[in-house]
Specification:
- The protein is mostly helical.
- It has a single domain, classed as MFS general substrate transporter like domains (Growth Hormone, Chain: A).
- Helix content is 78%, strand content 1%.
- A two-stranded antiparallel ribbon has the order 1-2.
- It is globular and about 70 Å long.
- It starts with a helix and ends with a helix.
- It is found in: Lysosome membrane.
- GO terms for molecular function: transmembrane transporter activity.
- This is Lysosomal dipeptide transporter MFSD1.
- Belongs to the major facilitator superfamily.
Length: 440
């Protein structure tokens, strides 16, 4: 039993770790989605074509994708503190470079540094949830994490558009870079990797299970174990198809699509993406909590992804509806997208606790690989049909061009739903073999 002082210390350290790391995660979402709101400014500043604009936005996703598995290895072996602190510093420098860039190449280099820095935040956040909280709350906590992280995505939509009336996009990114540097320093001084570092038991130990200790032995052996597990890979495809389309659409192409196909102003289009991302945030929390309460993963996941695919079919049809209805549809689409977030819980539960970082990083790679592929691919598909029209230095695409781009993303969403059919039901607990192996 813990004393009152120990309980207070555990609660304080847990809140500190959660608060600082989730703040860094919020910044990662802001950087991920901001190009959609400043697409016009970026196109004018760097005279960028659709494929160049998509490539600039996707630079973040390239490095983010490449870093997911290494991040899983690092948090399982070195711990969260050093990884998040270093990531904050790198992202801060990248944001400063991006905000002061005078060429497309320099802007891409800055965005690459940003992607490198923030690429560690989500897997580190999942590790915090696994180490500092009880297993039975993991789905709810992961949903809460995504809910809070999406504050950054929401800030990158309509609020960023409003802010651009008061400051330039360059000033915004310089200020964010300075904040990121301060956040990295705070993480280094105040975050602890796990309760055992200060002599406290973890929630798993209090329940009589083995603690979430760092992986013992070679990291290559642990990673190989995760990769050989077929149950790990089942969650990769919903992550690729559903997470990838969300990041590509909300992160770049949604605002231009709504402006050029449905005649909305940028502020109106940004309202739609903000509502979509808010729906995703709320859905992640509520569907995660519902999954924990029902002790089921697959039914909740599949229901969400069916609705998500149906929303893509509506976008593909390009049917213009009253604004209130289109806002509602975007909110529903965002809410339904959250079904794919349960793949992180499943990946953790079909592998040993000590390998939770590596397991979640493997499936998380899918979402960012999807975003990295789709942002420039959609631009390439639309550039192929572009008729040469320009307006204030920005390419204007036809409805047919956008239908081709939306068709590509609809296919990816369908792939995600098909992949979800093969996800193993874990009943919200570690598999018996994984837990037995951990405690041996």
């Amino acid at each position: 039993m813990l004393s009152v002082e120990e309980r207070a210390q555990l609660a304080r350290l847990r809140a500190t770790a959660f608060g600082l790391v989730v703040a860094a995660y919020i910044l990662s979402f802001f950087h991920r989605m901001a190009p959609a709101s400043i697409a016009g400014e970026l196109a004018r500043a760097f005279s960028a074509s659709g494929v160049e604009l998509g490539g600039l936005a996707a630079t973040y996703f390239y490095v983010y994708t490449a870093m997911q598995v290494p991040t899983g290895v690092l948090v399982d072996t070195l711990g969260v503190r050093a990884i998040v602190a270093g990531g904050g510093v790198i992202a801060g420098v990248g944001s400063l470079v991006f905000g002061t860039a005078d060429t497309l190449g320099v802007a891409a280099a800055g965005r690459l540094l940003v992607g490198l820095g923030v690429s560690v935040m989500f897997v580190a956040m999942l590790k915090i949830n696994a180490v500092w909280f009880h297993d039975r709350h993991f789905g709810t906590l992961t949903g809460l994490t995504v809910l809070l992280g999406n504050l950054g995505a929401v800030l990158a939509a309509a609020p960023l558009v409003w802010l651009l009336a008061l400051a330039t996009w360059r000033e915004v990114f310089v200020a964010i870079g300075l904040f990121s540097l301060a956040l990295g320093a705070a993480t280094w001084f105040f975050v602890r990797n796990h309760p055992g570092e200060v002599g406290l038991p973890s929630p798993r130990e209090l329940d009589g299970h083995a603690p979430h200790a760092p992986h013992r032995g070679r990291w290559t052996e642990g990673l190989a174990e995760v990769l050989r597990n077929r149950a790990t890979w089942a969650g990769f495809w919903p992550s690729l198809g559903v997470g990838g389309t969300l990041f590509a659409f909300a992160g770049l192409w949604a605002v231009p699509y709504l402006e050029q196909v449905h005649g909305m102003t940028r502020a109106q289009a940004a309202d739609h993406t903000a509502l979509m991302l808010a729906g995703f945030a709320v859905g992640s929390f509520l569907l995660g909590a519902l999954s924990d309460r029902l002790a089921r993963r697959r039914p909740v996941m599949l229901a969400g992804l069916v609705v998500y695919l149906a929303c893509w079919l509506w976008l593909l049809a390009q049917v213009t509806v009253p604004r209130a209805l289109s806002l509602a549809l975007f909110a529903v689409m965002g809410f339904a997208t959250a079904g794919f977030t349960l793949v992180w819980a499943v990946a953790k539960e079909v592998n040993r606790p000590a390998l939770s970082g590596m397991a979640t990083s493997v499936v998380n790679t899918g979402a960012f690989l999807g975003g990295a592929l789709l942002q420039p691919l959609v631009g390439l598909v639309m550039d192929m049909g572009w008729d040469g029209r320009l307006e204030a230095g920005v390419r204007i695409y036809s409805a047919a061009d956008y239908r081709a781009g939306m068709g590509l993303m609809t296919a990816f969403a369908g792939l995600g739903l098909i992949g979800a059919l093969f996800v193993r039901e874990t009943y919200c607990r570690y598999s018996a073999s994984a837990d037995k192996e951990e405690e041996r």
